[in-house]
Structures are given as structure tokens and as C-alpha cells.
Design goal:
By secondary structure, the chain is of the alpha+beta class. The chain has helices at residues 32-48, 53-58, 131-142, and strands at residues 2-4, 10-17, 61-72, 81-91, 95-104, 107-120, 125-126. Strands 1, 2, 3, 4, 5, 6 and 7 form a seven-stranded antiparallel β-sheet that branches. The radius of gyration is 16 Å and the shape is globular.
Length: 147
């Protein structure tokens, strides 16, 4: 599901069915898997901007994670279907921040954010947002992405 908010950033939502391998001995999702779900949603948001992450790498750039914040409220369990919402929260010349919320039905299970910098792979260092990506990613921030 893709939803553009008229007065804010574009938000995508994906559904994930909790797999047994993602749970601990108590049947609760291990905390590290929430970050994996963040990545699934983030790459879907990149696609919404018009660029599969593979395309971004093909251009010689990567989004390197520089920080992650995750706040747990309730646990997900094997067999649950959770909805992961992702939006671009902040865009600077060299970095960006994505925001996430994870729900089971209408219950908020977790929320968080990840910080990233653009990296020029050939140079092996941080760089400004690549020219072809600036307009599409700015559109994510303003909610003006074409449907």
C-alpha cells in the first residue's frame, strides 16, 4: 500500500508475516528483526521515488547507515501479520533520516528511525546527494511523489 499524505511526506506501508525463524524461544520476534523490516520498507520507499536500491548502487552510490533508533512497545509473535510504515523524515545535502512505525492491526508495536549518508562507492567516501536522486527524494519529503 502506498499513501501520499497531502500535508507531509509520502508514506509507504508494507505487510510482513512473522516467520518462525524471526522469533526467540518465547515465540516473540527477536529485536534485531525490526531493523530488517525497516530495511524492507525503506527499499520500497526508494522504489516509490523511482529507484530500486539496485539502481542506486548501479549509479555508483550507496546509502550507508550511520545510526538507528528503535523503541519497542509490544512484541510481535510468530504468525502475526505486521504493517511497517516508512517515510522520509529529513533530507540534507549529504544525509537523510527515515522514520518507521510497526503495527499489528491498530496496535503500535514499535517505532524508530535510521540515519544515512550518501556514499560515492568509487571514492569510498560520503558525498552530496547524487543529482539524479535529489528531486525524487525531495518529492518523498514533500509528499509530491507521482502515484
Amino acid at each position: 500500500m502506498i499513501r501520499a499524505q497531502p500535508e507531509g511526506p509520502t508514506e509507504i506501508q508494507i505487510d510482513v508475516e512473522v516467520r518462525y525463524a524471526e522469533t526467540d524461544q518465547m515465540g516473540v520476534v527477536h529485536h534485531a528483526n525490526y531493523l530488517v523490516w525497516f530495511e524492507l520498507a525503506r527499499t520500497t520507499l526508494c522504489q516509490k521515488a523511482g529507484f530500486h536500491y539496485r539502481d542506486i548502487e548501479g549509479m555508483g552510490f550507496q546509502l550507508q547507515v550511520t545510526g538507528a533508533h528503535l523503541e519497542y512497545r509490544k512484541g510481535a509473535r510468530y504468525g502475526d501479520v505486521v504493517r511497517v510504515a516508512c517515510s522520509l523524515e529529513q533530507l540534507a545535502s549529504r544525509g537523510l533520516t527515515f522514520a518507521y512505525r510497526i503495527f499489528r492491526d491498530s496496535t503500535l508495536l514499535a517505532r524508530g528511525s535510521t540515519n544515512h549518508v550518501w556514499v560515492d562507492v568509487a571514492k569510498g567516501r560520503a558525498c552530496r546527494i547524487p543529482g539524479p536522486l535529489e528531486r525524487p527524494f525531495r518529492a518523498l519529503l514533500t509528499g509530491s511523489v507521482d502515484g
